[in-house]
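Project outcomes to date are best conveyed with an example. Our students and postdoctoral researchers have been running inverse folding experiments weekly, and each run begins with a structure described purely in tokens. The record below, which covers 67 residues, was selected by the lab manager from last quarter's runs and is presented without edits.
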């Protein structure tokens, strides 16, 4: 995703079974490789995990310069 991936938007590199098509490839974004998964990110369901990850994306997104 050349302009970045907005929080809550599915990555275009995810397969239908939620696997990364770029895993292990040099073109995989550095951010993806730097994410350190933790059990607390999983929640108790897929829906809760997605809410947690979306919140983390929003909280850690880079600040946008004023236009």
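After processing, the design step wrote out the following sequence:
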């Amino acid at each position: 995703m050349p302009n970045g991936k907005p929080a809550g938007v599915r990555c275009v590199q995810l397969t239908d079974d939620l696997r990364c098509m770029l895993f292990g490839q040099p073109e995989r974004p550095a951010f993806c490789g730097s994410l350190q998964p933790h059990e607390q990110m999983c929640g108790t369901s897929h829906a809760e995990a997605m809410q947690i990850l979306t919140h983390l994306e929003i909280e850690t997104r880079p600040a946008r310069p004023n236009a």
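The CA atoms of residues 4 and 11 lie 9 Å apart. The radius of gyration is 13 Å. The training component of this project remains on track.
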